[in-house]
Fold this sequence. Notes:
Four copies of one chain form a homotetramer. By secondary structure, the first copy, chain A, is an alpha+beta fold. Chain A has one domain (2-80): Alpha-Beta Plaits, CATH 3.30.70. The first copy, chain A, contains three helices and four strands. A four-stranded antiparallel beta sheet of chain A has the order 2-3-1-4, with helices on one face. In chain A, a hairpin with a 2-residue loop joins strand 2 (35-39) and strand 3. Chain A is elongated.
Amino acid sequence: MKATAELQVIPVGSGVSVREEIEQVVKVLREHALKVEPHASGTNLEGELDAVLTATAAVHESLHDGGAVRLISILKLDTRGDKSPSLKDKEL
Amino acid sequence: MKATAELQVIPVGSGVSVREEIEQVVKVLREHALKVEPHASGTNLEGELDAVLTATAAVHESLHDGGAVRLISILKLDTRGDKSPSLKDKEL
Amino acid sequence: MKATAELQVIPVGSGVSVREEIEQVVKVLREHALKVEPHASGTNLEGELDAVLTATAAVHESLHDGGAVRLISILKLDTRGDKSPSLKDKEL
Amino acid sequence: MKATAELQVIPVGSGVSVREEIEQVVKVLREHALKVEPHASGTNLEGELDAVLTATAAVHESLHDGGAVRLISILKLDTRGDKSPSLKDKEL
């Protein structure tokens, strides 16, 4: 099943600037079979739903391995039964 | 890795009342090895991160199989590197 | 216009435990004309949409006044044109 | 207080394609004193927190006036006590 998605990862208990962690988030997402489009409030994703979920787990593992104490993520998922969703179709 | 989570599934393009779909969401979540606590804005979850993600995929599959045309989900994930998170600890 | 809502406030750059800030969030929400139901992933709200939004702004102001350096909030809003939404109706 | 934000509005109980409603969302947001950047999973905003919240209420009012039966919105807010946040600073 194909999905479009948005992942925002919020490191809690690190410093107030989290740029380094966000760069790591995008780096890990790009290692998966996904279209990856970072923006100011998260990263838009397109690909198989399983790939989106696997990539999300990999992001949490990678950041905790790198020392993150606590991570709160907001993952939006959009799937359709009638056709294959795409980021392109969702742009105005 | 253990996680607490919240899943809200929004069926789009079905009727305005989505109670039947939400009951199906909770039913599918309960088939997984998770603590499952439904509330008015979603369902709180506790368990292995992988189980949370597998259950989320199973929910989308089950609802599309049941005829849902489009599903938008909001999944909040909370993981910690220093200790095992629990819903109990997050209550006031 | 009446709304049901859920507010989760995430203090970033404070310590890893944010219990004190969350207690302050709920305290400020209770000073407004809203039904307030805290749970493990946020606080469910019911009342006028304007009251929900005013309370959300008051929470950000109060926590920054108390020293919070950065706050990320996730606010879910649910409004209806056909009837008055309630938290009660959204429970299973 | 200045904020960056992201608003995603999900019309429930309308058709499965909600492009017309989303165009109306962006149109209403642009009538406020905000930087408005639509993307595939919502619209990023920058401006005074009060303007973000006022614009969000105006969007719900406008879409219900236009016939929307039910609207679920996800609003992310990001405010800082130490400096003025901007969408520009949050891009990688």
